[in-house]
């Protein structure tokens, strides 16, 4: 059984959770409290890797860290290469480059939103910030998506990542109506729908974040 370790929140682990659910992988989670004591003083020291970090997965004797690396490992392990932009047989495809580009763009978009929302003035200025800052990136993503169902044409990990970014934006901008069909498409993937109904809303609800941000 695969073990996914992370803080007791959504964060960088949430798209990985969606990927594991999509792959129907048998896994369990090791969730760390925000004080960090167990992670910093115990598990980080004992994790069998030269690069201990959160999130991590433990798969038997294999330890993989870093949120951008874990999905690559999982896609290759379960031979679902299209999830990382490769051809079905694992050979190179230009989508593999686009995959990495979009993943970096989405991470920057997510981090920029969360960092902005920690500033007291965000609540009053968030619409202006969206128009001047975030919307530029959304327009690029909209162009990439085009008439396709998913960002690379076929479903890939970056769709789970983008879905999570969109959920954050919905949290801070509840009146925002963008990519609604795309969100519905992800949420109606059978494995994801089951996860949302049985697990996510009981553990990783966004309302738990309210005390950390100005929204």
TrEMBL record:
Pfam families listed in its UniProt record: GST_C_3, GST_N
Top EC class for this record: transferase
Domain GST N-terminal: 1-82
GO terms classed as biological process: glutathione metabolic process
Gene3D superfamilies tied to this protein: 1.20.1050.10, Glutaredoxin (3.40.30.10)
Entry keyword set: Transferase
Reactions catalysed: RX + glutathione = an S-substituted glutathione + a halide anion + H(+)
InterPro entries: Glutathione-S-Trfase_C_sf, Glutathione_S-Trfase, Glutathione_S-Trfase_N, GST_C, GST_superfamily, Thioredoxin-like_sf
Enzyme Commission number(s) from the entry: 2.5.1.18
Molecular-function GO term, any one: glutathione transferase activity
Top-level taxon of the source organism: Eukaryota
PANTHER family (alphabetical): GLUTATHIONE S-TRANSFERASE, GLUTATHIONE TRANSFERASE
Family that this chain belongs to: Belongs to the GST superfamily. Mu family.
Function field: Conjugation of reduced glutathione to a wide number of exogenous and endogenous hydrophobic electrophiles.
Name of the protein in its database record: glutathione transferase
Source organism (scientific name): Tetrahymena thermophila (strain SB210)
Origin organism lineage: Eukaryota, Sar, Alveolata, Ciliophora, Intramacronucleata
């Amino acid at each position: 059984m695969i073990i996914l370790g992370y803080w007791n929140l959504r964060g960088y682990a949430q798209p990985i959770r969606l990927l594991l659910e999509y792959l129907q992988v048998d896994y369990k989670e090791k969730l760390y409290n925000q004080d960090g004591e167990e992670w910093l003083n115990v598990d980080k020291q004992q994790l069998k890797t030269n690069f201990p970090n959160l999130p991590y997965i433990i798969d038997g004797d294999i330890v993989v860290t870093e949120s951008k690396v874990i999905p690559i490992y999982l896609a290759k392990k379960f031979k679902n290469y299209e999830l990382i932009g490769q051809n079905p047989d694992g050979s190179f495809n230009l989508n593999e480059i686009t995959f990495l580009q979009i993943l970096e763009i989405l991470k920057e978009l997510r981090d920029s939103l969360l960092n902005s929302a920690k500033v007291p003035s965000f609540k009053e200025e968030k619409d202006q910030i969206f128009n001047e800052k975030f919307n530029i990136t959304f327009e690029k993503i909209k162009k990439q998506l085009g008439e396709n169902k998913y960002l690379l044409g076929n479903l890939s990990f970056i769709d789970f990542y983008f879905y999570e970014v969109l959920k954050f934006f919905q949290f801070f901008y509840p009146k925002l109506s963008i990519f609604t069909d795309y969100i519905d498409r992800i949420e109606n993937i059978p494995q994801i729908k089951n996860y949302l109904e049985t697990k996510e809303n009981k553990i990783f609800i966004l309302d738990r974040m309210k005390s950390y941000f100005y929204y």
